[in-house]
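Question (not urgent): is this output format expected?
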Amino acid sequence: MIVVKCGVLYQNYLAYNAEYAAIYYPIFWFGVMFYPLSHYLYTYGHKWLSVYSHMALHVIATFGSCILYLGDIPGGNRLLMV
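Got this back:
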């Protein structure tokens, strides 16, 4: 979970000046909203709806990431430069 959180924070940091940031952020955050929903559903015994909600989180957030990476991301290769 720590690696996932660090990756998400870093991607959102890089996306700030990206070409498609205005499209990425709403899609990404819409997907993230499924995370608390999945916990809520699981808590109240709706295990399969919880699974589908968590899957929706991944599908929607990944769709947002794909859109983000279609455009230019200034400094996106910074860690690859030696």
